[in-house]
Every structure is written in C-alpha cells, then in structure tokens.
Amino acid sequence: MNRLVDATSPYLLQHADNPVDWWPWSDEAFAEARRRDVPVLISVGYAACHWCHVMAHESFENEQVAALLNDNFVSIKVDREERPDVDAVYMTATQAMTGQGGWPMTVFATPDGTPFFCGTYFPRPNFTQLLQSVTTAWREQREAVLGQGAAVVEAIGGAPAVGGPTAPLDAPLLDAAAGRLATEYDATNGGFGGAPKFPPHMNLLFLLRHHQRTGDPRSLEITRHTAEAMARGGIYDQLASGFARYSVDAHWTVPHFEKMLYDNALLLRLYTQLWRLTGDSLARRVARDAARFLADELHRPGEGFASALDADTQGVEGLTYAWTPAQLVEALGEEDGRFAADLFTVTDEGTFEEGMSVLRLARDVDDAAPEVRARWQQVVGRLLGARDTRPQPARDDKVVAAWNGLAITAIVEFLQVAALYASPQDEDANLMDGVTIVADGAMRDAAEHLATVHLVDGRLRRVSRDGRVGEPAGVLEDYGCVAEAFCALHQLTGEGRWLTLAGELLDTALAHFAAPGGAFYDTADDAERLVARPADPTDNATPSGRSALIAGLVAYSALTGETRYREAAEAALATVAPIVGQHPRFTGYAAMVGEALLSGPYEIAVVTDDPAGDPLVAAARRHAPPGAVVVAGQPDQPGVPLLADRPLVDGRSAAYVCRGFVCQRPVTSVEDLVAELG
C-alpha cells in the first residue's frame, strides 16, 4: 500500500513507489505493529543524502528485502529534516549503542517506539541477515530484546542537558573559548580538525564578534584564512556559487556535493560580516554570489527557500560538477581551456574520481589586474553555460521554518552591508544592484510565507511544500530562528508587524518549551510524546534550538526594552556556558550571542526623514558593535519602540545610542556617533 504519496517531504515521496509497505511516522503505524505483534523498522534520512539513496536502491527497491520487511515488521520512513525531534531521539540511541551516528539511520524498535537495535547504512547482504536475526530474536528471545530496549531508553533519558551545571557566560569564558579554538585551528588548510571537514560558520561568526570586542588579531586571522580557503576550495561552487555540505578531505578539495540551505545561509552571514568589518574583496564577491545563489537556486516564488540540492545526479556524485582538461578545452577552446585548467587546478590525474577534478581557485583573482578578472568572469560564464547542458541535481523543495529564518536574517544583513558599500563606480555595480533586488524579493517572500502559511492558530509548523503546510509541529529551533529573522526584518523595514510576530513566537516558546533551571526542551510540552524529550544544547550543523531562541530573545529585548526577555536569555546561556568553556567548536552560536550580551548589546535608534540615505544610518550599521540592533525612521514611528519619544535635534537627524538599557545623549554628526560606538 502506498501511504507516502501525499507526504510533504520529497524524501518520503522518493520512497512512495518502493515495494516496501512504508508507513509515515504516525500513531497508526505503531498501533499496527501492536496489532500484528511485530517490531518496527524506523528508517531515517533526507532527500539530499547520498548513502540514503544507495541503501534505497540496494535494499528498499529490492523485492526480496521488501518481502522480509513486509512479512515481519511495520516499516516507518522519517525525514529527519521534517521531524528533527524523532531524529534527535533515535540518533542519541544510535550513538549510545554504536559510538557513532549518521544517515541513513536504521533503528529497530518495539511497538511502543523503544529502540533495541540501531545502526546506519547496511549493504544489502548485511541488511538481509540483520532482518532475519531481528525477526528470530523478536520471536524467540523477546525478554532479552525488551531488556535491551529498556536499557537504551534509560541511557538516552539522561542525555538531555536539563538541570545540569550553570555558569555566567562572561568575558573570561569567551576569551578562553576563542583561545581553545585557536589551538584546534588548522593553520595550513583553515578550519578545525581533519577530514571530513565541515564549514565552521558559527565558530567564525563568534570569532568575528570576539575580534570586534577585544581587538584580538588571531581571531580575525583564523576567520579570514578559513573563509578564503573555503571560497577557493572545491567545497565552493566556483561557477554558480553555493557551498557543499562538507569536504571529504582536510583541505576543502572534494566536497560531498549536497548544498544545504542552512549552510549557505550561515555562510552568507559570515562573508557579509567579514566584508562589513574588513572591506575584503573576496568576502564581498562571495557574499554577493551566495545571496544570488539563495535567490536564484533555492527560492520558490511566492513561498520560501527550498531545503537543499541533492548530492547525486542520476545516482552519481559529482556528475554535474567535475571536469577533465579535455572537457574544458571542448567547452572553451584550446587557449581558454588551458587557462581554465591552470586557474581551476584541473589536471590529467584529477582530484576526484576517474580522472575528474572539482574546480578550485588556484590563485587570487579578486585583486588581480582588470584584464585577468574580465577573462576569468568570461570563462566562468561559458563553463556555466556548458555545465547547464549536463544533468542537474534534484532539489528538495520543502520549506523548513528554521532554515528559512536563517536565510532571512542573512539576507537582511547582506542588504544592509551592500547599501553601505554601494558605488556607481564599481565595475560590477549593476550586478550587485541586481542581486540585492532579487535577494530582497526572495527574502520578503519567505517572511510572508512563514507568517501566513507556517503560523497556524498561533503555533509554528515545521515544514510546507507547494504552499501546503505540513503536520509536524515547530520545534524550538523553528521558534528561535524565525523570531530572530523577524527581529532582523523589523530593523530593515521599520515595520512593527515583524516585531509583534517575533514577540508572539518568543512568548509561545517561553510558555511551552521551558525546562528547569533556565534551560529549554526542543519540543513543546503539548507535543507528541516520544521515548525521551530531546533538549540538545549544542550547536551542530545548525544552531541548537536553545542558542537560536537565546539570539531571538536578546534581539527582541534590545528592540523593545523589555528586560524579562533578556533575563530569560541570560538564564539559558548560563546552562550552555560550561559547554562553551570545554567544547567551543559545538557552541559557536551560543558564544556569538554571548558576545552580543557582553557588548551590551547596543541599541541604536536614528530619527530621520531619510532612513535609506541618511549618513547616520550608514555609520550606525557600518560600526555597529557585536549584536547591536539598529532602527531608523521618523520620531515616534508606529510599531518601533526604539523611536518612541526620540525627537529630531534642532530639526536635524539624531542618533540615540543605548547600551544595556543605559542611554547616552543624542548625537547629530557621524563623527560623534562613531566615537560613541567605538
């Protein structure tokens, strides 16, 4: 029976025609397992996952494997991106049992959802043998199976970091976190650790803010070097922009080719802030092209941003992206082909499979002579045209609330910084203008979609697709990321509606996700009951729900002056602080928000008749300290608390600067404003 055909998840739809009698995650599936007295197979993955596709082709499309599953199990398919709560619980169990995790995740559970055997990818012969063994154990060793499950639940039940030690996230702790990151830094290749190497966007955002606060040159050096190494590596698409999920090596050469919305949103934010603080030409280019990638490749008109581009094309990794020297010559001609091979490090030996190479930028082009830049850009355009004739990776079109929130925040910051550096004299001024226009439109589309489709009866839903909202409830990261995004949009537009919506989301989170001691659970108190209630405080591929909510609370408190939101943020940060001190690589977003609180954050209100062109507004955004909020508009503009009771000064625009709810006298000159922000 095909039960997946109406799913909002492209991952589930990929399995709708399998011979396996799949169920979506539902009470009905577990009731069926109880009725038949059989165990449950919970198979968790996502649409852009290479090894998920491999296991699907090897096992789930195989009639013999399907017969074993259909006869002896109730089989449930779960999209980890649609149900991060389910994924978190069973990933904790998988890691507890095997010492590692990943996707596809393969979990065998009792009809009440208790996991008793967990793993990841299994080749078909191993998987077949495993199915037979589990079937035998369920029938003949039921007591041992149930005992194993009870032990696993007991182990993962203590995993959530709720009610643990707390400490203030103060300057010494943040300084120590930056110092520890420096000791783990790969000074040769950039980034942290070895292979596989993931883009450390949240750590670098923290280090940028740390540099702003302290002037620490090492933090800036680590950030600039890593940002350049990634942008010149194979993990970055040198033709169409967009970063892949990770590099399989330690030097950013060969990526795992899936492109995720959350990575590209966080990396857009990183390169934008690096551009703002340094004026770096490479950071400017990558930020511009990353914004264009989001708007052109992932935006769904009238909706939000799609989740991902697949790792595979027609079942082959890298088919769209890799080149040989001969293919370059075929696309460009002999002379330009040799130029491109040299510039993009394409060799006869290759860096990928079967003599193919992933394009890498061998040398600096952003500050090269105009004729070199012109030739490079012309070659890129022609190669992209040739590549467009190849088969293209599939796109996971579901809209995830949290990830769209990350994208909105990133684009808002990009638009603000792009306005600071806008110059008609720039050689690519028209290109930059075009990117800002399409990025602005895509961002507003996404915000409206979240506000009108994902908000249902005052509660946030996790996903939508084709304009239809899904059933899964929003988790903590959805509330935090979307609230932070609406606070950012309020600052860009001066519209009170976005601030009101942000406050409503935060109030819901405080009411339904709070845990003892200032912590937060990842699921609401009225959400579906799982075998454990997840509460992960660590930042991994995306900000933890706790870190995201803290960021939203800090921004909202600064924009409204309501101290209870700041107090909730400080209490929640105190639950993460002990981890920041010991494991800063897994608390980058929390440390970034900690820098904002330590800085103030500054609250900057510019009263003006010209919010778009007033030099005071530009100076405020250019020199904003870590985590500062900036609003601009007419005095007492409705819906903007920071502009209330703040008049013009002698008929002139004025900037009102406060820090931690303590205000300075208004200033009317750029020089005085910069001095106050210094």
Report on the structure:
It contains 24 helices and 20 strands. The chain is α+β, with helices and mostly antiparallel strands and 678 residues long. The strands form 6 sheets. Strands 1-3-2-4-5 form a 5-stranded mixed sheet, sandwiched between helices. The protein has a 5-stranded antiparallel sheet with strand order 8-9-12-15-16. Helix 8 (171-184) runs parallel beside helix 21 (563-582), helix 18 (476-493) packs antiparallel against helix 19 (496-512) and helix 20 runs parallel beside helix 22. The longest helix has 26 residues, at 429-454. The chain starts with 9 loop residues before the first helix and ends with a helix. The model has no long low-confidence stretch (mean pLDDT 94).
Note the main attributes of this structure.
20 strands, alpha+beta, 678 residues
Indicate the topology.
Elements: H1 10-14, E1 22-24, H2 27-36, E2 40-45, H3 50-60, H4 63-72, E3 74-79, H5 84-98, E4 105-109, E5 115-119, H6 124-140, H7 142-157, H8 171-184, H9 201-214, H10 217-232, E6 246-247, E7 255-256, E8 259-260, H11 261-278, H12 281-298, E9 306-309, E10 312-313, E11 316-317, H13 325-332, H14 334-343, H15 370-387, E12 395-400, H16 401-421, H17 429-454, E13 455-456, E14 459-460, E15 463-465, E16 468-469, H18 476-493, H19 496-512, H20 545-560, H21 563-582, H22 588-599, E17 602-607, H23 615-622, E18 629-633, E19 654-659, E20 662-663, H24 670-677
Parallel strand pairs: 1-3, 2-3, 17-18
Antiparallel strand pairs: 2-4, 4-5, 6-7, 8-9, 9-12, 10-11, 12-15, 13-14, 15-16, 17-19, 19-20
Helix pairs in contact: 4-6, 5-7, 8-9, 8-21, 9-10, 9-11, 9-22, 11-12, 11-16, 12-16, 12-17, 13-14, 16-17, 16-18, 16-23, 18-19, 18-20, 19-20, 20-21, 20-22, 21-22, 23-24
